[in-house]
């Protein structure tokens, strides 16, 4: 929509008129056919047409261009009256500076700046309106801190207002306290549940450990019993070993005495008796001791058999052979015993 031709002072070239609205061009655009239009006019024209409204030549939005510079200058230099001339504004300015003037024209109608006030006043009368506007606000003169609108200033009661505010704050606080209480309770609940769970878990673990402990105690008792037994056996074996060693010590001197004894006997009794018989009696004692030891500790049948045999009326040669066998058997026993002791 262009500017009303009536508002212009002086002659306006026909080329500066819009081909659609026939008013003076406002934000002009030019077609390739050199016809010019207001931007709004040609845009709405081209919605339904595809040609120049003047000469019907084909036209689309894309082919529109800005007005020639000389035409734009002519247009900008045109003298126009203020849009508020009806209200009393007598300003006449160039079309170029029209918007600047209208933005600050004293006769322009503007809205009251107080929120909620529907009044529209001329810019020059705004101050007068603000001083008596019903929507103006100011702080309570009694110092309650409330901002009052001029309309409800007469009904304002500081105490009642403050009381209401306190009530509101109290309600808000109670709400918050309740919220916090509920949150704490739920947190405590969850912690309690967790503790109960943990407690039962620990109880189970304690029970398990108790079981393990009793098993270990059982094992330990068994081991202690076994150890006592072993110690006893060891002491017994030690005793036997000592006895056997003594026996061995006794045996060795006897063996070394044999030839001497034999010689002495030969001198005393002559060759009537064989030295074998003399030898026979002494070792037999040893033999008996050894055998009794065997019987007590090992219960060897062979050893028993030997013990039973005693001094036999058999020939001396046989007796000597048997004696030799017994001695070797005794040595075997000693060896075995000492081995047992070592093992223990
Ligand atoms: Zn127009
Ligand atoms: Zn045209
Ligand atoms: Zn004006
Ligand atoms: Zn107002
Ligand atoms: Zn007040």
Automatic annotation (TrEMBL):
Annotated InterPro entries: Znf_RING, Znf_RING/FYVE/PHD, Znf_RING_CS, Znf_TRAF
Residue ranges, compositional bias (Low complexity): 293-303
One term of GO molecular function: zinc ion binding
Biological processes per GO annotation: regulation of canonical NF-kappaB signal transduction
Family annotation (Gene3D superfamilies): Zinc/RING finger domain, C3HC4 (zinc finger)
Residue numbers spanned by region Disordered: 255-329
Keywords: Coiled coil, Metal-binding, Zinc, Zinc-finger
Domain named TRAF-type: residues: 100-144
The UniProt record lists the keyword Heme: no
Protein known as: Ring finger protein 41, like
